[in-house]
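User: structure tokens for this one?
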Amino acid sequence: MMAAGGMALVGAPQARAAIPERALAFYNLHTGESLKTVYWAEGRPVPGALAEIDRLLRDFRTSEVRAIDVGLLDLLHRVRTSLGSQEPFHVISGYRSPSTNAKLASHSSNVARRSLHVLGEAIDVRLPGRQLRDLHKAAVAQKAGGVGFYPQSDFVHLDVGRVRYW
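Assistant:
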């Protein structure tokens, strides 16, 4: 079925096939695990790929796994694409269990007590081949959540909460 102006409707089978795949790659600095996967295909999330991402981004201290928000994955995809990179994100912190987050927050004022990491809605990363400042600028340009710049710790925080920068 065609819409006015000759554009295919999103619900039409040919339009779903035309929606591009979205892929991401990760390297978990704490576990040494890596993953390159297509997490979005044929107009929808790929459940098996999401499960693999959830496992890789688990709380490495407790091995607890939580579903990572697809909006966060989309944000990472847009940032990586805007930088023209195919490199894997180096993951400093993905999901954090409530107990891990509480322990970290008790030792550092840089860890939010109600962190979006606990909800699977935040990640701390760097991107090989790109300056940290460029990664930060690309994330801020998305205007899609929180972006924190931590040059002393060599990472950028991204989340899908309200738009804010620090």
